[in-house]
Design goal:
Length: about 575
């Protein structure tokens, strides 16, 4: 078959072959064998009676090592790899490996991957719609749960998706083994049994910044003050009421003595007392004068001189509530509160720190108020309605455990019926909560988890987080997550929309068919160690077949994935069955 080596360059060799060859040699692996070395290559191109063979690595004994230091000599024997060498490349000899798929180039020989090499590293899965990407992901996870000698009882895979397409594929995993369980959370408010719930007190300043669409750094300080107030106000005791009176009185005084016309001052004070009030300070309270009382709102009637007729009475009454001697404890302590409590705290934040008289700051604070109010008065508030206080440990346990103290290995978050912006905020919040929890564990990496992001381009983007918060949670997980056991799996048909920093940290890749030129160019530019040959290979792939490479693979290989059983609900709508009616002529 292989006659002689014509030439050897830095990265490939030209080898003369027989004129008539029946076998399809393209992409097959060959070995350049000499007494003291064996170099592995791959046939990249066939031109007449010559083939171009790229060098991939070297066999040392039975083990394969990527990359080469020594080139073969022109006298080396060239042959197709044998069964033992193929088994080393496909992971067949690894007893702790799991099935990935089959190699169509080698009579569907099984391709296996090492568990640590695959599941301990960030991965990216790319492919056009209809390329078999979702089916491939479902099959990959199912293969993990059908290993013969091991069961992934302690595995934790969080899936985030905007549809329930994976529900059919994973909801019956307990039929594989009674120890396996599946759990689903949804944002569909009509499904109250498995509705997603996020305790407000577990959210950090950064989480609120994401949920409330913060666009200016100064809004961060407003959120910090809001959380301090909601923590203090939750006590609902006399000290809390005194502090509220102090805040209201200070705000009224600052407006009362501002350089504005009386009508404007009155409107602002009425606005303060409408949003922030107590039994002692509200528009309807009776204010005692000398020999008479007046309703507080009537104290702001304007006389013919354009002044408040009861200015002295107002000042005396308000000053009684200002307490500059008490040192109020504004340190935030997680405690039970509702979204309504949060609105009250934000209203008090808006009247403090002179925000009322600073047009820019007040405008930025009002934007937060509008967003929070919109959530509080929509179906989204149900996601934040929790009956009792739970700690972070209790909350994480609640995500994983099901009835009778059984644990779920796959937890599916279906983010349906919400807009993309809010969905991205929720995924960021969950990612931050889980990442910080994993970092807090006494034994680092003792409970590895996977964050599997379907339609990852909706979440993992180059956002303004860097400018506002100083970091992006996905980029932080990509850089630091592996050492704490937080692993990302990015599944997308639009890799160009992903954060470059996150992609650069991925170690494993499954690339199904992609046609768009900008996506191909991006992959070739951003994916570590990818070659133009790999790019070319994926262009002609059949549905359900991918190019697999990275730490999990000895060399890049074309892998055909088995159909998942059961499959996810990700196929196209059946137009023929839905549209067509058989027409019978009489």
């Amino acid at each position: 078959m292989f006659k002689e080596i014509v030439s050897i360059t830095k990265n490939y060799a030209i080898v003369k072959i027989d004129n008539v060859i029946n076998d399809d040699l393209l992409n097959l692996n060959v070995v350049f064998e000499e007494p003291n070395k064996k170099i592995l290559g791959e046939i990249e191109e066939i031109i007449n009676d010559q083939v171009k063979i790229n060098f991939l690595g070297e066999f040392q004994g039975d083990k394969f090592f990527d990359g080469i230091i020594r080139k073969p000599s022109t006298s080396a024997k060239v042959r197709i790899i044998n069964a033992n060498e193929l088994a080393e490349l496909t992971g067949y000899n690894d007893p702790s490996a799991m099935i990935l798929g089959a190699s169509p180039l080698y009579n569907n020989s099984p391709v296996k991957i090492n568990i640590d090499d695959m599941w301990s590293n960030h991965s990216a899965i790319f492919g056009n719609t209809g390329s078999g990407k979702t089916y491939g992901v479902a099959r990959l996870v199912q293969n993990l749960f059908i290993m013969k000698d091991y069961i992934p009882f302690n595995s934790i895979i969080f899936i985030f998706n905007n549809t329930d397409e994976y529900d059919n594929a994973f909801s019956s995993i307990n039929t594989y083994n009674f120890n396996f369980n599946y759990k689903l959370f949804s944002t569909d408010t009509s499904k109250s049994d498995n509705l997603l719930k996020l305790p407000l007190w577990l959210l950090s300043v950064d989480d609120y910044a994401n949920i409330l669409d913060v666009s200016e750094y100064s809004q961060i300080m407003i959120i910090e003050k809001m959380l301090a107030y909601v923590s203090l106000f939750s006590k609902k005791d006399e000290e809390t009421n005194r502090y509220k009176n102090h805040l209201i009185a200070k705000a009224i005084v600052s407006v009362l003595y501002s350089n504005q016309v009386s009508a404007r001052i009155r409107d602002q004070i009425f606005s303060i007392l409408t949003d922030c009030n107590t039994p002692e300070l509200n528009l309807d309270v009776e204010v005692p004068g000398v020999g008479y009382t007046r309703e507080f709102r009537k104290c702001f009637e304007i006389d013919s001189q354009g002044q408040f007729a009861e200015r002295v009475l107002i000042t005396e009454y308000i000053n009684k509530f200002i307490d500059n001697d008490t040192k109020w404890n504004e340190e935030y302590v997680p405690t039970f509160f509702t979204i309504d409590d949060l609105e009250v705290a934000l209203n008090f934040t808006l009247i403090s720190e002179g925000l009322l008289l600073n047009e820019k700051s007040y405008s930025e604070a009002t934007a937060l108020k509008v967003k929070l109010h919109a959530i509080a008065n929509s179906s989204q508030r149900k996601f934040f309605e929790c009956e009792n206080f739970v700690s972070i440990n209790e909350y994480i346990s609640g995500l994983i455990l099901i009835g009778n103290n059984k644990r779920a290995q796959i937890i599916n978050f279906v983010l349906e019926n919400i807009d993309d912006r809010f969905a991205k905020s929720l995924v960021k919040v969950y990612s931050r909560i889980l990442f910080n929890f994993m970092k807090s564990l006494p034994s680092r990496g003792s409970m590895p988890i996977h964050l599997m992001l379907e339609e990852a381009h909706r979440y993992v983007q180059k956002d303004n987080d860097i400018n506002i918060l100083g970091y992006n949670i996905f980029e932080r997980i990509a850089k630091e997550g592996r050492k704490f056991g937080v692993i990302l799996d990015l599944i997308t048909q639009r890799p160009t929309e992903l954060s470059e920093t996150v992609i650069s940290q991925c170690s494993n890749f499954l690339i199904f068919k992609i046609n768009h030129p900008s996506d191909l160019e991006y992959i070739e530019k951003m994916v570590p160690n990818i070659s133009s040959d790999v790019i070319e290979k994926q262009k002609s792939l059949q549905a359900g077949t991918c190019v697999a490479f990275g730490r999990m693979m000895k060399i890049p290989m074309i892998v055909k994935m088995d159909l998942p059983d059961p499959p996810p609900h990700s196929s196209n709508a059946n137009i023929f069955d839905k549209w067509m009616i058989k027409w019978k002529n009489d």
